[in-house]
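F.,

This is the one I mentioned.
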């Protein structure tokens, strides 16, 4: 089941993802998280007369509500003002549920009615958002979710960010992204967030929201088998990456490059690959110096080469891949093999990249491990001590062996910094490659007397 609402990143004016700012167009929020409850609320009717008798609404308000029920197609700003006014004065859960259903139905029936609500700001700057925002932190899940959906539609339709503080809405979305009890709530939050982040001014505010990006990354890792959820969450990252300051920080702080590469490698839906690659393009074009080392360590260039050999129905994917590949090729050609090694070592993600296996590299650069009070050698020993993955351990043990082979006089410092003892321990490691590399390193250590 679907309900008319707001715009996810796929709904662009030209139908594709590119590095131009995306343009909103109204589409649908999918899922039955709200619709099942909405149907229940509609089916039990709206006892406006009872609300009047309970003095929750006035006789005039009751009359207007009856008029609206008789002709829900009438575009009358009195109804928009009435519904928002009732949200301000009523505190009971059941009538608030009814009013939110009326507002949502009114907007869904005719998107042009959004303006009726936005026009309320002409008489009161707090409208229409203020009365809605206060219902986000209520205990009733339906009320807060329906409110968040209505707020998102109004904000995205306004064309500019109103003066209100929307941190309560962003906080609610973050809370729902962490919601493992009700998966549909997290799905709704991802859809609403990917719509809100089309609004330029809200991107920095969300990025600065406590646990905001952590919630996105946590939900992304939690939904490995849910392509639609992956797409919505990566769309949020893509929209954030249009902001230069965010593009400069987002990988350093949240490690998005490695996560998106792994997701794209195993994606079964083209749109997941498309939005991942579009994010890489933004990071390359807007903040390459801040992301280059991570792209190098996580082998984005070889991955781009693999993608270029695949056939996609969406040709925009290959266009973005080509841009990323070409730019990385130019930059990587200007990086020395030693810079490549240092970048990888500092990242803490050692892998069997060509530089480790190059005899020429070790012959030319081994003495640089002794510079600055053996700074690189100590960092390598630290990796050997702290790494948990078998690949990282095997590569670190191999590199220790290569260092000793080409710089025998460095054996004493290896003992002093604890690397020799750690190598000896790794000879009993459960992984055969780690054991082998440790054995080779120990043989190099024992070739000459100490």
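My design for it:
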């Amino acid at each position: 089941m679907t309900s008319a609402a707001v715009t996810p990143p796929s709904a662009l004016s030209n139908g594709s993802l590119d590095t131009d700012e995306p343009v909103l167009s109204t589409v649908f929020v999918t899922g039955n998280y709200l619709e099942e409850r909405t149907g229940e609320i509609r089916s039990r009717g709206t006892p406006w007369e009872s609300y009047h008798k309970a003095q929750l609404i006035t006789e005039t308000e009751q009359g207007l509500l009856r008029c609206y029920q008789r002709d829900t197609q009438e575009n009358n700003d009195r109804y928009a003002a009435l519904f928002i006014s009732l949200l301000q004065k009523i505190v009971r859960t059941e009538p608030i549920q009814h009013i939110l259903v009326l507002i949502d139905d009114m907007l869904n029936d005719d998107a042009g009615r959004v303006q009726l609500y936005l026009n309320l700001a002409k008489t009161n700057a707090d409208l229409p958002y203020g009365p809605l925002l206060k219902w986000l932190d209520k205990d009733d899940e339906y009320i807060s979710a329906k409110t968040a959906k209505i707020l998102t539609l109004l904000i995205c339709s306004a064309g500019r960010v109103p003066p209100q503080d929307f941190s309560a809405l962003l906080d609610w979305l973050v809370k729902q992204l962490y919601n493992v009890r009700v998966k549909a709530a997290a799905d709704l939050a991802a859809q609403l967030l990917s719509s809100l982040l089309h609004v330029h001014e809200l991107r920095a505010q969300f990025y600065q929201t406590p646990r905001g990006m952590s919630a996105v990354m946590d939900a992304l890792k939690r939904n490995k088998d849910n392509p639609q959820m992956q797409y919505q969450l990566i769309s949020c990252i893509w929209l954030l990456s249009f902001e230069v300051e965010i593009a400069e920080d987002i990988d350093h702080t949240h490690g998005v490059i490695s996560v998106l590469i792994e997701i794209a490698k195993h994606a079964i839906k083209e749109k997941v690959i498309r939005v991942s690659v579009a994010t890489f393009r933004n990071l390359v074009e807007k903040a390459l110096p801040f992301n280059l080392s991570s792209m190098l360590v996580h082998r984005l260039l070889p991955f781009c080469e693999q993608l270029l050999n695949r056939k996609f129905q969406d040709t925009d994917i290959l266009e973005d891949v080509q841009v990323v590949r070409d730019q990385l090729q130019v930059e990587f050609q200007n990086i020395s093999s030693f810079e490549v090694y240092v970048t990888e070592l500092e990242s803490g993600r050692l892998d069997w990249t060509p530089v480790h296996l190059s005899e020429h590299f070790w012959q030319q650069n081994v003495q640089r491990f002794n510079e600055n009070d053996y700074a690189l050698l100590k960092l390598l020993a630290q990796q050997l001590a702290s790494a948990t993955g078998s690949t990282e351990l095997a590569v670190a043990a191999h590199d220790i062996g290569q260092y000793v082979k080409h710089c025998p006089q460095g054996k004493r410092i290896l003992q002093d910094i604890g690397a020799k003892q750690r190598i000896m321990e790794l000879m009993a490691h459960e992984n055969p490659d780690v054991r082998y590399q440790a054995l080779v390193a120990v043989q190099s250590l024992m070739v000459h007397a100490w």
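Residues 1-16 have pLDDT under 50 and may be disordered.

Talk soon.
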